[in-house]
Design a protein that fits this description.
Keywords: DNA-binding
GO molecular function: DNA binding
Strand order of the largest sheet: 1-2
Shape: elongated
Protein name: Transcriptional regulator, AbrB family
Number of strands: 2
Distance between the termini: 46 Å
Radius of gyration: 18 Å
InterPro entries: Repressor-like_regulatory (IPR052975), SpoVT-AbrB_dom (IPR007159), SpoVT-AbrB_sf (IPR037914)
Pfam family, one: MazE_antitoxin
Length: 69
C-alpha cells in the first residue's frame, strides 16, 4: 500500500506507480468523495474517452411506465 504525506499547504503527491496505473496526467482533475471516513480520488475523464464504455451492456430490462420517454 502506498503512503503519502500531507504538506503544510494540505497537498499530497500521488506516487508514480499509482499515476501510471490509473493513467493520471499532469493537470488532470480528480473527483474527491468521502465515504465512511475514507477519501476516494476518482480520475475525471473527458466525454470523448467515454464513448463505447457501456458497449455490451444488457439493455433488455423492465422499466416502470414513468421512467419511459
Amino acid at each position: 500500500m502506498a503512503e503519502v504525506i500531507v504538506s503544510s499547504k494540505y497537498q499530497i503527491v500521488l506516487p508514480a506507480e499509482i499515476r501510471k496505473t490509473l493513467g493520471i496526467k499532469k493537470g488532470q482533475r480528480l473527483h474527491v468523495l468521502v465515504e465512511n471516513g475514507s477519501i476516494r480520488l476518482i480520475p475525471s475523464r473527458p466525454l470523448s474517452e467515454m464513448r463505447g464504455f457501456l458497449r455490451g451492456m444488457d439493455t433488455n430490462i423492465e422499466r416502470d411506465e414513468e421512467e419511459r420517454f
